[in-house]
Amino acid sequence: MAELKASVTWQEDKAFMGVAPSGHNVQIDADKEKGASPMELILLGLGGCASYDVVAILQKSRQAVTDVRCEMTAQRAETVPAVYTDIHMHFVVTGSDIADKQVERAIRLSAEKYCSASRMLVEGGVNVTHDFEVIAG
């Protein structure tokens, strides 16, 4: 098992600077004035992980994809800890002659096999759902 190292350093008030294992800096702010909140980063991590998978699977399926956007809506518990309870992911896939069947397959494979963020959230009790639309372009 590979060990990853990251750090989060307090800057001021509720602002922190995160350094990812890759060395990239991420501004974090609980008040959202200087950066994304920690829970927003979890949501974006899920969207990024799943989108990466969907693009890679569609490209391997020889689909002429020109754009993929993942629009997410989420609900959180009203009590502390305010965990995510439900997340819906709507994929908008643009390209030429994109087969709905291939998009559906790519999303399913990401959700069930490849996206670590999705698996972690689902196994933690979050209801993650998906749908998609294909736009010719």
TrEMBL record:
Pfam families, per the entry: OsmC
InterPro entries, sorted: KH_dom-like_a/b (IPR015946), OsmC/Ohr_fam (IPR003718), OsmC/Ohrsf (IPR036102)
NCBIfam families for the chain: PRK10738.1
Record-given protein name: OsmC family protein
Species assigned in the record: Psychrobacter coccoides
